Amino acid sequence: MNARQTRDDKQTRTLKRLVKKLSALRHTLSKSEREMLDTLILGAPAEVTGHMAPRLRRPRLRQPCRPRFRQRLIAK
Questions:
Q1: Which of 24, 33, 48, 55 is close enough to 29 for a disulfide, judged by CB 3.0 to 4.6 Å?
Q2: Distance (Å, rounded) from C-alpha 71 to C-alpha 63?
Q3: For position 46, what pLDDT does the model report?
Q4: With DSSP H G I counted as helix, E B as strand and the rest as coil, what are the percentages for the chain, rounded to 5?
Q5: Distance CA 22, CA 38 (A)
Q6: Concatenated DSSP letters for 15-43?
Q7: Are 19 and 27 within 8 A, CB to CB?
Q8: Is the pTM of this model over 0.70?
């Protein structure tokens, strides 16, 4: 890993920490304060909406699971 990659990795980690802290701060503010914060950061009022992680669907089994070795024992 060269020096540039190390510096980029460090900046990425720092940015993630900063975004997390700003997000936590934003949740404590009133609507007008959030708009001011958005204006300070983005340079213009922004409509920011929350997001939610997608739900993971469990795969459905087409047939009940059965051990196959038992079938082999019966067949022999």
A1: 33
A2: 15
A3: 58
A4: 60, 0, 40
A5: 10
A6: HHHHHHHHHHHHHTS-HHHHHHHHHHHHS
A7: no
A8: no
Q: Is the Cβ–Cβ distance between 46 and 38 less than 8 Å?
A: yes
Give yes or no for a contact between 53 and 45, defined as CB atoms under 8 angstroms apart: no
Both tokens of 25, joined, read 């701060």
Q: How far lies 8's CA from each of 12, 19, 40, 41, 69, in Å?
A: 6, 16, 25, 22, 53
Q: Is the pLDDT of residue 29 over 70?
A: yes
- Residue where the block lists tokens 């997000």: 23
For the cut 60, the answer to whether the pLDDT of residue 11 exceeds it is yes
CA distance 26 to 39: 12
Structure tokens at 74: 């019966």
Task: Report the distance separating Cα 35 and Cα 46, nearest Å.
Answer: 7
Tokens of 14: 């720092």
